[in-house]
Design brief:
Blueprint: H1 2-26, H2 43-58, H3 62-75, H4 80-88
Helix pairs in contact: 2-3, 3-4
Length: about 90
Amino acid sequence: SKDEIFEAIEQLKALTFQVEDIAHRQAQPGYTTPWWMDGDYDETRAEEHNDRGAQLCKEKKHAEAFDEFTEAVRLAPSRAVYHANRSSC
């Protein structure tokens, strides 16, 4: 319908604005890439860090577990379970 098309166009405009804003901020002098977007993605290493974090959490070594889960998130930021583990330990 026309309403659905109009809504899709408006969403596309909003997303385009967001992407342009991100590009503008990244082009500024002194911009620092957030730790979770550094491009060093590695699912295998992420899973290893997650496993170490889980073991450390069981051992009640929470600070060390948090660091392991943080590294897992950095290496595979799209894996929700790593974020959940990081927040739960």
